[in-house]
Amino acid sequence: MKTVLAGLVMAVLGAVSASAQCAAVPEPVHVLAYGSRYVEGTDSRKIDKAASRAVNEALDPVDELIRNVASDADAVDAGRTDRAECGIAALNKWAEAGALGALQSDTARLTIGSRIAGMALAARRFRDVAPADPRWPVVEAWLTRLVEAQRDFWETDAPDGARRGNLRAWAALAGVAVSDLTGDEITRGWATWSAVHVACTAAPDGSLPQEMTRGKHALHYQLHAVAPLVMSAVLLTPRVDLFSECGGSLDRAARFAVRDLATGAESEAITGRVQSFFDGSRELGGFQLAWIEAYLSVRPDPDFEALVAAFRPVSNSKLGGNQTLVWR
């Protein structure tokens, strides 16, 4: 009897301990109405510091949630399957509250795609270890509503330039990730078309014209567009061979980004500006290269391998967490 009681006590303590590992869930955000981070009318995309602070404050709870669930997903993949409970509970809290249901500015609608993608990609990792959790229908229905609102926005109200750029690519990844959870072929089809639409804009040298309008930040934004495009392509394999579209435009775009990180000379030649990674204003981070792990899983390449090796492990919460852990 003492042995049985001791076992029960240890089980309870273990459950409490596991529960204590869960980060506090930020309160759900319903309304987002922030404006642009940038000074109006500047071709170099100059940051308006006050506006940028306002954007960060509005998005802080959303991004905290995404970082938390990405951390839970990493723990699950590292063997702490109990942490799936943390991630599912956090997503369910926001889902039950109908969070992010009132995006009241175009800027909010333009930039929410990467956040939906991050949540859905983390959810895919929880689903692997807790496929029968009864909260999935609520979470899936919520993510579906969010991505359907994105689909409507991008097809009707989004600015023309943005339709060909990185923000559309992130919305496409959100659709791919959510459709993987739900099996919704309409969402998957729209997401595939969106990814192709952006990837096929790549010039013969691989530069993405919309991102090359960003002055000294062009190479930074090329990376920011390639990340969701590559992740979408890998997740869509083998249903769709996105890499073969438009004469291999996605490969060209990825190679341009990796190649130009050596000197920035190609982006500088296009824009007439020394790139931010080379003028001292921005430092390359591992999160900007996290997509390379997925790329290497289907496209082995020594140049890509050499670049990312110096930064491993590489993680990006908007790609669902630690990509070295996921793909290697």
From TrEMBL:
Name the source's superkingdom: Bacteria
- One Pfam family of this chain: Alginate_lyase
Q: Keyword NAD: yes or no?
A: no
A single GO cellular-component term on record: periplasmic space
Query: Which intervals hold domain Alginate lyase?
Result: 65-262
The signal sequence is: 1-20
Is NAD set as a keyword in this record? Answer: no
Q: Which residues form a coiled coil?
A: none
Q: What is this protein called?
A: Alginate lyase domain-containing protein
Which source organism?
Pseudaestuariivita atlantica
Organism phylogeny? Bacteria, Pseudomonadati, Pseudomonadota, Alphaproteobacteria, Rhodobacterales
